[in-house]
Amino acid sequence: MIRDLKQSVFLAALAVSAVLFLCPKAYAARTIVICHGEFKTKAEVRGTDSQFWCDQHPYTVFEHCGNDNGVNGANPKESVNKLCGGNGFVDEFPAEGGSGHPGNHCGYSWFSITCTD
Q: What is the widest separation between alpha-carbon atoms in the chain?
């Protein structure tokens, strides 16, 4: 019985080692939730007619758009190129909890990407 248990543990460890050897990037993935919009916080919105800002939904990276850097909508594939060096993919558009909203220069979008570097 103990011999069978030792053999099972050895085979499981061997299988995990094989997976990590054959797929080394499988454990290096990181997910980023992005908000693309003009205003990050409600405080920045004061004095405007905006009803939206990025802090209305959770995110980890803020992508600003406005007159200073071009008035464009979200481009998740470009975000993968910039933040992941092209090594990644778009997970969810829109991200859970956030959806696209019109407003200000480029609207507001929340989406997630995964970097596989």
A: 74
pLDDT digit string (tens) for 49-69? 778 889 988 999 999 887 666
Tokens of 7: 């053999």
- What end-to-end distance do the CA atoms of the chain give, in Å? 43
Q: Note the pTM of the prediction, 2 decimals.
A: 0.67
Bridge partners for 61 per DSSP: 34
The span from the CA of 36 to the CA of 112, in Å, is 11
Sheet order of strands, 30-37 included: 61-64, 30-37, 109-115, 88-92
- HSE-CB of 79 using CA atoms within 13 angstroms: 29
